[in-house]
Amino acid sequence: MLNAHNKLTMLMIDKQMKELARRNSSDPDILTTLKDFIADVKCILAAAGVKELKLLLKKHPDFSNFVNLVQGKKPKGKAGKVSS
Q1: What is the pTM of this model?
Q2: Which of 24, 30, 55, 62 could be bridged to 80 by S-S, CB 3.0 to 4.6 A?
Q3: Integer Cα distance of 20 and 9 in angstroms
Q4: Nearest to 70 by CA among 25, 39, 26
Q5: Mean of pLDDT over the chain
Q6: How far is the C-alpha of 45 from the C-alpha of 6, rounded, in Å?
Q7: Domain ranges of the chain
Q8: Contact 74/19 with Cβ under 8 angstroms?
């Protein structure tokens, strides 16, 4: 289960990902810009339960895209597109 710090970190990443997408940042630029959050993302993934994580990733698709980048996966949708 995620604590308040984890949820706040996730929301900060989601917000920054929206801004980077608005600027059409490349995947390497996104990883460089948000590199300080990579360890936090790994902690969030480890702390969250499966159901909780699925709900959060669905609710925050920009955070989900960053998770995919951190895991070496291509984000869903086109890079640089702001989710609706």
Answers
A1: 0.83
A2: 24
A3: 16
A4: 39
A5: 89
A6: 10
A7: 4-70
A8: no
